[in-house]
Design a protein that fits this description.
The structure is a homodimer of 210-residue chains.
Chain A (H helix, E strand, L loop, with lengths): L6 H10 L7 H13 L2 H17 L16 H4 L4 E8 L2 H10 L4 E5 L18 H8 L5 E4 L5 H14 L5 E4 L15 H9 L4 H10 L1
Parallel strand pairs in A: 1-2, 1-3, 3-4
Amino acid sequence: MDNYPSRLLENAVNELAKLPGIGRKTALRLAMHLLRQNPVDVEMMCNTLNDMAKNIRYCSECNSISDKSICDICNSHNRDKTVICVVEDIRDVMAIENTGQYRGIYHVLGGIISPIDGIGPDDLKIASLVEKVAKGSIKEVIMAFSTTIEGDTTNFYIYKKLKGLNIIVSTIARGISIGDDIEYADQITLGRSIINRTLYENMLADSGKS
Amino acid sequence: MDNYPSRLLENAVNELAKLPGIGRKTALRLAMHLLRQNPVDVEMMCNTLNDMAKNIRYCSECNSISDKSICDICNSHNRDKTVICVVEDIRDVMAIENTGQYRGIYHVLGGIISPIDGIGPDDLKIASLVEKVAKGSIKEVIMAFSTTIEGDTTNFYIYKKLKGLNIIVSTIARGISIGDDIEYADQITLGRSIINRTLYENMLADSGKS
């Protein structure tokens, strides 16, 4: 359909269009941008991406991305090693760290159970989580997944795996986002926000902290 | 503000965030995607981009991107070499070619006059256009730029340069897009569409052609 005037350009567009959220029109725009740059700068970008793809390392404890064999969080003396927060990927670790509200450690699954994408429990670091918990020093596992079918499935699967291990298994609170109108909230979220209501004096104390 | 757990990841995000329309969150999403790929595939993408950046060639006649020294359009015997359509970049050539309505040749400026971005007439292939027209075989120059301040400025600048050369200088029609509601059209577009109205029998003939 597209009549690219150059094979070099077409190949570049094909590669860029493989990236998630980048369609062929955007890929062409990106390729045109790269053509306006100095080839040395394009090479530097490519070297940086290659360097990451080849040399990235993962924390041997929590599976988070790290330049060290054990990441700063797992290695810290100030973190509570008896509480594990289970997340999909490193972006969730960064988001939770940015809140400044969590002092435990993490366990990064490296994905989420998604039959549509062909990702099952065995593709994720679930076995190593169960193993870690089975050793006995963990008191609580907090599951922090997005509220999607895939997130709920992963929640339930991990809950079943950990149920017999005599620990607390919790999931992050669902409720009305700050700034949201109650009248536009969906029924399930609003329902859960009533069931899991917070004592007002606790909320006051929380606001004071942050 | 962001606390990347790895220098390699942070460098990759920094490079990807230089691309137009890619913010830091999207750059991180792209970097995570690349990490899930086989490093060999990332290397192939990078080689393809480098190959394009280093080896791309431009048609010596029209300045369009081409793998040959003269592009297929300039080299074709079926194109009318007395009509030149002036465009900003290769994407506009591709868009106009897709209409199947144009049989002349092109002249690619390689950009558009934009003082905000520091792009003046001397940064574009305007001198070579004037030179080409001054040789005398050109009958008409059609300017096909976006309807932005930059496009209008470029239109006017080129018009002034070509005015004395005894050729027709035209610009693509502005009017109501097909599928658009008249009541939502802006005043200027609607005004121009009335001034430059088309004989209904001509429009019927056009529809029959395409």
